[in-house]
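Structure (tokenized):
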């Protein structure tokens, strides 16, 4: 039990460290993106380059994803204080949300179609060369 807790804490420290590096990168280079987004990009490249393996962060990442809903509570409470801004800019915000959701769905659909087509093409090529 203590060993599992220690492993979890180390994994959490790795994720927090990457998050802090993302924040620091944004501050140093004056990037116009949030530090947490920069941290996710850094994490992606570390995983892609196999500097970090998934099993080195899997337990902590799974726990964070399991409790993701709790992280939206402060955002929701903060939105309650923005009533006048939502009344003034609400229609514009709604339009932006609808357009961005549509673009996201379109991109996800196209990516899924590309993966399916690639797998079908590989399957056809595989059967063409079978004895």
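Design, position by position:
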């Amino acid at each position: 039990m203590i060993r599992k807790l220690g492993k979890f804490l180390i994994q959490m420290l790795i994720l927090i460290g990457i998050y802090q590096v993302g924040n620091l990168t944004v501050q140093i280079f004056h990037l116009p993106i949030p530090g947490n987004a920069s941290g996710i990009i850094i994490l992606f490249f570390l995983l892609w380059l196999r500097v970090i393996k998934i099993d080195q962060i899997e337990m902590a990442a799974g726990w964070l994803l399991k409790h993701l809903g709790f992280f939206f509570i402060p955002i929701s409470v903060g939105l309650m204080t923005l009533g006048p801004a939502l009344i003034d800019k609400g229609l514009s915000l709604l339009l932006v949300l609808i357009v961005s959701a549509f673009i996201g769905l379109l991109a996800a659909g196209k990516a899924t179609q590309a993966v399916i087509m690639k797998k079908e093409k590989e399957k056809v090529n595989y059967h063409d060369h079978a004895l």
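Reviewer-requested clarification: The helical segments are 2-29, 35-48, 58-66, 73-80, 83-128. The first helix runs from residue 2 to 29.
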